[in-house]
Specification:
Layout: E1 9-15, E2 31-32, E3 35-36, H1 37-47, E4 53-57, H2 61-67, E5 74-77, H3 85-96, E6 103-108, H4 116-124, E7 132-137, E8 140-148, H5 152-158, H6 166-171, E9 177-180
Parallel strand pairs: 1-4, 1-6, 4-5, 7-9
Antiparallel strand pairs: 2-3, 6-8, 7-8
């Protein structure tokens, strides 16, 4: 029996944050539709067609492993999660080395308004390891974003603090393919107590 080749695009879910503005409640564990938010977010990637999903955990990682059903995902612990999203993005990209993935589709755990339709649109724009694609909302760049493997080293080198890939994307804005998703998704973040009303 021959092994199936690795899917070219892997899902990368950043779910390590400690929820500082939510009184220290990790966003991964916030309840949404009766389950932890991280479980919902991983399910969105799966439903969109991503068969390999890596989830970066940080704050209360042991509790997330215990409470969320993520058995079909690769769980990546980021011990430096408190340094910000940049460290989680680096940890996630590192975890994809050697998997055969040619691109990473990156999503954030705290954006439940972005569902499988938007993810599938960005995924469909993948061409090869040089691809650089972003969802857009009324023409404004947002998440998810797809990074071909040719960009990973450059992103890792510039991903610091809470910036994530922002500096790299700014530098390469002329190369980014924008995929309009404003008709199928809402890119709000769950950052503060007031935002909790978006959860169901």
């Amino acid at each position: 029996m021959t092994e199936k080749p690795a899917p070219p695009v892997a899902g990368l879910l950043l779910a390590a944050g400690g929820g500082r503005r939510l009184g220290g409640r990790p966003k991964a564990l916030l309840p949404h539709r009766g389950r932890p938010l991280v479980e919902h977010a991983a399910g969105v990637l799966r439903t969109a067609g991503l068969t390999r999903v890596h989830v970066v955990l940080g704050a209360r990682a042991a509790a997330v492993r215990e409470q969320a059903e993520l058995g079909d995902c690769v769980l990546v612990e980021n011990p430096d999660w408190a340094d910000g999203m940049g460290s989680s993005l680096r940890a996630g990209l590192d975890s994809l080395a050697g998997t055969g993935a040619l691109a990473a589709l990156v999503s954030l755990v705290d954006q439940p308004g972005i569902g499988p339709e938007a993810v599938a649109r960005v995924l469909a724009a993948y061409e090869d390891e040089t691809s650089l694609v972003s969802a857009a909302y009324d023409g404004v760049r947002g998440h998810p974003v797809l990074f071909g493997a040719a960009h990973w080293a450059g992103i890792a080198a510039t991903a610091t603090g809470d910036q994530g890939a922002r500096a790299y994307l700014k530098e390469h804005r002329g190369s980014i393919g924008l995929v309009e998703c404003g008709d199928v998704a809402q890119p709000y973040d769950i950052d503060t107590e007031a935002d909790l009303g978006h959860l169901e």
